Amino acid sequence: MVVLNKIYTRTGDKGTTALGNGDRVAKYDARVTAYGTSDELNATLGMARLHASGDMDAQLAAIQNDLFDLGADLCRPDIAKDADAEYPPLRMIASQVDRLESEIDAMNGALDPLRSFILPGGSALAAHLHLCRTVARRAERLAVELSQSEEVNPHVITYLNRLSDWFFVAARVANNSGKDDVLWVPGANR
């Protein structure tokens, strides 16, 4: 269990922060940027949930929890040393990706096929979900970039990739099952 009695520690006042293994790195370190962006995604998702209800809100709540798992995974380098850790680090697992895929398939099965690209917008929930989609794509790019120089759990990258797809399909659902999607009209303003 996490206990936070004191919110500020002053340990980051000189521009460093601690990773999950205790190592101190610059606050602009690629790993910190990657898990910081997953936190930003979680905050944008919190805004989307203001407009959600029922099953959609429950699914978004599960994703928010997953994003904390993902941040915990990214903040802990040295995957090879997991077995030697005093406490087993929290890592993303395949079943979290599988759940997203199952939900995408269920949502998409009720939608008409796309005949055009969609512009972000429509309902308030759909617009927020499109914002979540773009932040998820950025988080994915940063995790992939990090993986070029350091070890990253592959389930993190797969989850972020699938999550942006989830947000896209969910935005269509939020737009009256795609009936209120805002369609791109190529060259409309020429």
UniProtKB/TrEMBL annotation:
EC? 2.5.1.17
Instruction: Tell me a Gene Ontology molecular-function term this record carries.
Output: corrinoid adenosyltransferase activity
Keyword Nucleotide-binding belongs to the record = yes
Gene3D superfamilies annotated for this entry?
Cobalamin adenosyltransferase-like (1.20.1200.10)
Q: In which pathway does it act?
A: Cofactor biosynthesis; adenosylcobalamin biosynthesis; adenosylcobalamin from cob(II)yrinate a,c-diamide: step 2/7
For this protein, the record's Pfam families field holds: Cob_adeno_trans
Residues of the Cobalamin adenosyltransferase-like domain: 7-174
Q: Which domain of life is it from?
A: Bacteria
Catalytic activity as recorded in UniProt: 2 cob(II)yrinate a,c diamide + reduced [electron-transfer flavoprotein] + 2 ATP = 2 adenosylcob(III)yrinate a,c-diamide + 2 triphosphate + oxidized [electron-transfer flavoprotein] + 3 H(+); 2 cob(II)alamin + reduced [electron-transfer flavoprotein] + 2 ATP = 2 adenosylcob(III)alamin + 2 triphosphate + oxidized [electron-transfer flavoprotein] + 3 H(+)
GO:BP terms for this protein? cobalamin biosynthetic process
Principal EC category: transferase
> What NCBIfam families is this protein classified in?
PduO_Nterm
This one is known as Corrinoid adenosyltransferase
Q: Which organism is it from?
A: Shimia aestuarii
